[in-house]
Design brief:
heterodimer, A: mainly alpha, 44% helix, elongated, B: mainly beta, 16-stranded antiparallel barrel, 1 helix, 19 strands, globular
Chain lengths: 75, 376
């Protein structure tokens, strides 16, 4: 399982190695709409981690929630 | 450990959309309550975050579950019980240029289970801060005990590898991709739970024997998400996740949600989440005979099942004169109703039926979060 992960990391970082500065198509001063709290999917970490906990303990799937997953000892 | 355990206080940094800065100082105090399927879990949660010199941040958390369980597993094979699980977490962040380093520890303890987890992640803003890439690794060390059996002591180890990419696509659209791989090794089943098998010698037609899981498990999940801010300050978001592991669990999870801010003080949100999964290959509600195969499970979390969540949230931001040390504050209420439907887990509270003819089990859960947040 580690080999595919390492390969993906290499693929993901390759573009960075070959690129200089990228001209942003959304300028910093154009990001006001993105900085609104309603655009923050982890606006309240105390809540999002609790909700993740509720699901991980009662379902067979876990991970890729974008937050921190320590895994689940769901025995 | 009779209820499932997840480590939740790993205290990840909350990456701000504006790059080159750590998230604001804040404190959250929450009361949480889960009530469903004969199980009530409630308690407080506390999370405090403080920056130093704009480059460093420390996060500390405390979480308590007070469990009162008369779940279907308990009422059919054991006795109702109460227990507590407490968890402490500590996190450190260091911002250097466009790179954030994060180190976190958490420790969870209850009478018959201990879980310690360490985590490291590195986040990099790139392409003029349009893209944030985070790589993370977590390692967990669990100890499993059994009530009433001093000699019983087992271990379980866990590794979590994660990648998270957040991308500003337009002035109003953010998209994201996450991938986690979790590997576990050790004692992965419950020392209490049983499976049932057909037994003509029994009056009920079936008997129980202890469950038995493989000693390893590897699973991966990948998720795609998007969030768009429409005019008049409302946002829609959508997310899809696919999960698969070597126990043959396959799961699809879809969530859509609506978030509306108005009057600069209120945020209202609604969401719908659908989850469906195929069960583990060694799961059965009713095995044909005792010791039917090497591995045996009747844990409904590993069965073929689905869940639906209808969630609502309301936040009110205010500045109170008696809280002058806080720049701003908010009170928040979130309420979720979750419906769990099991396709291969039968309700054994119904007796007098042929084994395997009992109705399928389902239940509704109510989840409440009430919390206060203060920024200082």
């Amino acid at each position: 399982m580690r080999r595919p992960l390492a390969a993906l990391l290499i693929v993901l970082t390759l573009p960075v190695a070959g690129c200089g500065r990228v001209e942003p198509w959304v300028k910093p001063y154009e990001r006001a709409q993105l900085e609104d709290p309603i655009m923050d999917r982890d606006r309240d970490p105390v809540s999002s981690s609790y909700v993740r906990h509720v699901y991980e303990t009662r379902e067979g799937a876990r991970g890729a929630t974008g937050g921190v997953s320590g895994g689940c000892g769901c025995n | 450990m009779r209820h499932a355990i997840a480590t939740l206080l790993l205290l990840a940094p909350a990456p701000p959309i504006a790059a080159d800065m750590l998230a604001d100082d804040r404190a959250d105090v929450m009361y949480h309550r889960y009530d469903g399927g004969g199980v009530t879990v409630d308690g407080p949660s506390l999370l405090v975050r403080k920056k130093f010199a704009e480059q460093y941040a420390v996060t500390a958390g405390y979480y308590l579950d007070m469990v009162s369980s008369a779940s279907i597993d308990v009422v059919t094979t054991a006795s109702p019980y109460s227990e507590e699980r407490s968890e402490y977490g500590l996190g450190f962040e260091y911002l250097r240029g466009k790179t954030t380093y994060d180190l976190g520890f958490s420790s969870s303890k209850e009478d018959d289970y201990e879980a310690n987890t360490a985590r490291f992640s590195i986040s990099q803003d790139m392409f003029s801060d349009l893209t944030t890439v985070s790589l993370s690794f977590a390692r967990g060390w669990d100890k499993v005990y059994r009530q009433g059996d001093e000699a019983f002591s087992e271990k379980a180890d866990r590794r979590v590898y994660g990648i998270d990419i957040s991308q500003i696509a337009t002035r109003r659209l953010i998209v994201g991709l996450s991938w986690d791989t979790v590997t576990e090794e050790g004692y992965l089943n419950s020392p209490y739970r049983s499976v049932r098998y057909l037994d003509p010698a029994s009056a009920s037609g079936y008997s129980y024997e202890p469950e038995r899981y493989p000693g390893t498990r590897t699973g991966s999940a990948v998720a795609l998400r998007a969030r768009y801010n429409f005019p008049y300050r409302f946002a829609l978001h959508g997310e899809y996740r696919y999960y698969a592991d070597d126990w043959d669990i396959r799961a699809h999870t879809l969530e859509v949600g609506y978030t509306h801010g108005f009057a600069d003080r209120w945020i209202v949100e609604a969401r719908y989440r659908y989850h469906t999964q195929e069960g583990a290959d060694f799961y059965s509600d009713l095995f044909p005979r005792s010791n039917f195969q090497d591995y045996l499970a009747r844990d409904k979390e590993l069965s073929t099942m689905s869940s639906q969540t209808f969630g609502f949230g309301l936040s009110y931001e205010f500045a109170a004169p008696w809280l002058r040390f806080l720049e701003r504050s908010s009170v928040n209420l979130k309420y979720d109703v979750i419906r769990y439907d099991y396709d291969d887990f039968r309700d054994l509270r119904y007796t007098g039926l042929e084994a395997g003819d009992e109705p399928l089990y389902f239940f509704d859960a109510n989840v409440v979060q009430l919390y206060f947040s203060g920024w200082f």
